[in-house]
Amino acid sequence: MNDPIFYFEVIAVLTGILSVWLTRKENVILYPVGICSVSIWIYLCWIGDLFGQSIINLFFLLMNLYGWYNWQLKDDSQKLKIQIKNNNNSENLMVIIASIILSAIVFVVIIQFQKEDASLFYVILESIITGLNFTAMWLMAWKRIEHWYLWIIGDIMCIPLFVFKNYTLGVIQFAIFIVIAYQGLKDWKIKLQND
Description:
By secondary structure, the protein is mostly helical. The protein has one domain. It has 7 helices and no strands. It has helices spanning 4-24, 30-47, 51-70, 89-110, 120-141, 146-164, 168-194. The N and C termini lie far apart (49 Å).
């Protein structure tokens, strides 16, 4: 293939899959690998008129930097400060409210960038995915188990969006993300029980 976009997509997909796998393993190297992936996706989504996905990947870029820093913080005894934990009920309610509000804000922003013939269904879908992903990334930076649920839901929703835009490798990536996220959820629950 002589299409440079294809090669960018390959790199973005491979580094994205590696980043999620490293998250499952609770390996801080996930962050620089993730920075590579999301940087490419910012560009690919922008040129593909997936403005919400461009925005979320820009946020992912910033949160990768923040998470990279946050996951390395140590207390006075040199133990990592951020440990895997669950949200309580009020925190889960805040996650739901934040996801709804963020989805609405994203919709208001990205509808301004859409072409006249853009499908309203896909704009709404992209807004919901973006709102969920904002919240998931924040929870991931704090090692909250609930981030895995949001990733699974968001990844499932991304598949029709990326099919619509003919990002075939992106579709495969999200299918793999779902499997890794499910495994990560199980692994993190076991780690939490053992700690």
